Amino acid sequence: MGEPLILFEDFTFQYRAQSEPTIRDINLAIYAGEKVLIAGPSGSGKSTLANCINGLIPFNHKGTVSGTCKVGGIKTSQLGVFELSKIVGTVLQDTDGQFVGLTAAEDISFSLENNCVPQDEMFPRVREAADLTGLKGDALLNASPFDLSGGQKQRVSMSGILVDDVQVLLFDEPLAALDPATGKQTIELIDEIGKSSTVLIIEHRIEDVLHRPVDRIILMADGRIIADMHPDEILGKNLLKDTGLREPLYISALRYAGANISPSLTNLNLSESDKQLVQTWYNNANTSPIPHKDKELLLLQNINFSYDEKKQVLTNINISISKGEMTAIVGTNGAGKSTLAKLICGFETPRSGKILLHGEDITNESIATRAKHIGYVMQNPNQMICKSMIFDEVALGLVNQNKPEAEIRERVEKTLEICGLFPFRNWPISALSYGQKKRVTIASVLVLEPEIIILDEPTAGQDYKHYTEIMEFLVNLQSNGVTILLITHDMHLMLEYTNRALVFSQGELLADMPSAELLCNPELSAQASLKETSLFHLANECYISDAASFTRRFIDYERQKEVI
Question: Global pTM?
């Protein structure tokens, strides 16, 4: 195989502000042309490892280094960030934070301009890089990158590193902000453009990454590499769950049925006896009854909305939400999901139609009035937090309502108890993890005792452990009568925690249906930029005609196992 392109030998790194190393005793060799998935729970050291490869460590993030890290046979400490960027191209999770040009074409050409490449050479190279990622046409190249869809933004970032002809393509959670169909296309695109490069992918959504083959999976935990194996070995040994990660759903189903593990969804190659085992498990598994609906709480009647006269954002939306429901709002990027939330909260006013709460028309009520009944939790907790201390942040809404100090303290402390944050009540928010900050933002809404909470991507960027903690916390709120609406791209979340999905595409409500049925409907999934669950494919492979029922039984079985 020749010399490794990337080599770590007894490598340890400790950030200047940390008391312990973030990664330690790393020995790793990655060869030219390999495609590698790096996975692990939050805080396992994945991003730190990546930053050592692209040079952000030690040049931007200071700390103590021991051991050796080489890229292209040269120690990274001897190269510098600029030199390494010619070898390693990085696509960040937050593509908006990576853009520097006023148009997509300007952004793609940025490194060429820095290198004083003549324009007659620059233009064809930009177009060639854009063509490789599917960004074809002057309209896209001349558009502001901030006006593009999530998938198109990814393609601009990819084009910007491909234009430099780098040897290593490094993707940091490329699927985090993408709808399922766009995520699938992104993985296919990475597979295609990576055929002539070395590809490193850091990602929590392992099943989605394995839509296309990878050579190795590197598992990290507590700053160490705990496994470096072919996907077949990783999936067959239950290592993902043991590390606190979610394994592909069809792998879990095969495991529960006692069948042989097939590492490839596209080529299951199950024996007839394995198919029989899956059928037997399905026939013996119990299905929980779908809970009956309580009385209607929120009603949207004939809602139409547009930000200007040219483009209708939502068209003739009719939705009824019952008290105590947990409902998923899903669909393609730009389908109108977040706009719907803004209308319900009062941040925007519909052009026509009515919004009723308990049968009373609140269409023209103020944001402050609605906030007593409806809370909204944004995707990024850092965009909501105003105070430096946890107690003060959670108390802020009550302070603004001029509540008595004794009542504020009582309600804040009660809410912090519910959210599992009471021991940290006097902590600075800066000391919290991302997941804990998420809970603080939920607490700051919950303390106002709303009847409805709308959460935008509540588990984005969370590993399986923190994802489960947040969602079980929301289930507890739901059991206490709180109505919860989840805007999400995470189809696992929708399947596992909601019985109902509102499906949006191009400003229209395409469907209002059981979650399991949605992801067993290829036509509707394609229309809404979703993708059918791997359980749908497994059911078909095993001659189970009712894939939705198979999916429901799988989810119920998993939840019963967790309770036990």
Answer: 0.81
